[in-house]
Amino acid sequence: MSEQVIIFDTTLRDGEQALSASLTVKEKLKIAFALERLGVDIMEVGFPISSPGDFESVQTIAREVKNSRVCALSRALPKDIDAAAEALKVADAFRIHTFISTSTIHVESKLKRTFDDVLEMAVNAVKYARNFTDDVEFSCEDAGRTPIDNLCRMVEQAIKAGASTINIPDTVGYTYPSEFGGIIKTLFDRVPNIDQAVISVHCHDDLGMSVANSITAVENGARQIECTMNGIGERAGNCSLEEVAMILHTRQAKMGYKTNINPIEIARTSQLVSQICNMPIQSNKAIVGANAFSHSSGIHQDGVLKAQNTYEIITPESVGILTNKLNLTSRSGRHVIQHRMQELGYRDTDYDLEELYTSFLALADKKGQVFDYDLEALMFFNQIENQP
Ligand code: KIV
Ligand code: ZN
């Protein structure tokens, strides 16, 4: 039996805060519906105290979305928590996410307080949020750089105050997988009441390790991953939803974890987020990049034509992409040219494969990628040349 990992999506909060233009309520609602259809368990959709527009979008989404729990962010301050609760109260059930920094650099340089002050603020904030809902999440901002004794104290006190989810963010994407996994393991070893809360992780991608850190955290006991579609978010972004979901799905038999994400919705949701947020997806991006299912080398193309799983560990169809792509380049072999001609509706007797392949290679050497219309033009040109 696989264990469930909760997918907490923060595309509309951490993702949106990194965009150059903020989204309208309608745009946010469109993304929220797509995330609901994708199967996210929880969606964090804004920071209501920050602006009237953010308040309105949280309220609208909380009213409309029924199959994912809606959550809003607040600092560890009563006025923030009041705003979050006010925006969310239209929903049948909701989550309030409150946070405060716990690392020494943040506590001293940003908050200009002592760790004990911050501990007291955290406890008060969690208790206050519990007046509105029993689903309270508490985050130790910059947990990745927090002295472990302080982190253990904070987690224990936040759970005691009533937080049912404790989030451990690697806010600045600084840790590496064995180190971050070690932090989660230490919490399980040392915090006496840890079993009374779900341990969550929220990793940023400054060193490109957010996905690896999140997966290692799960292997060490975390059961909620915070992530965004296409990995959008502050600076280098957040842990990418499609990547963690497909890792847990593809390797479920070996790893033993599952999520409620419906993989077939991934491509469509990714495109929607990219377009609405005006954030293009890099072509070699795992799972959703334009090249994620395209093959260029002749050896790979030949292998995929014989059996798709020779070079594809997941099928494009399983994540909602119609088909894989075989790029026609000077590395492509005769087999691929013949296959493409068949796809274009030509019989083997309509053209001379050897002749077509020779002219294809000459063109590919000059041009790089050869397209279907080039291939057809070459065929017609050869036919004309061969006329008596
Ligand atoms: O990166 C971070 O620490 C955050 C918190 C507010 C959870 O986004
Ligand atoms: Zn973050």
From TrEMBL:
Its cofactor is Mn(2+). Pathway: Amino-acid biosynthesis; L-leucine biosynthesis; L-leucine from 3-methyl-2-oxobutanoate: step 1/4. Mn(2+) binds at D14, H202, H204, N238. GO terms for molecular function: 2-isopropylmalate synthase activity. The keyword Mitochondrion does not apply. Its EC number is 2.3.3.13. It catalyses: 3-methyl-2-oxobutanoate + acetyl-CoA + H2O = (2S)-2-isopropylmalate + CoA + H(+). Residues 5-267 form the Pyruvate carboxyltransferase domain. Keywords: Acyltransferase, Amino-acid biosynthesis, Branched-chain amino acid biosynthesis, Cytoplasm, Leucine biosynthesis, Manganese, Metal-binding, Transferase. The keyword Manganese applies. Catalyzes the condensation of the acetyl group of acetyl-CoA with 3-methyl-2-oxobutanoate (2-ketoisovalerate) to form 3-carboxy-3-hydroxy-4-methylpentanoate (2-isopropylmalate). Homodimer. Belongs to the alpha-IPM synthase/homocitrate synthase family. LeuA type 1 subfamily. This is 2-isopropylmalate synthase. It comes from Psychromonas arctica. The lineage of its organism: Bacteria, Pseudomonadati, Pseudomonadota, Gammaproteobacteria, Alteromonadales.
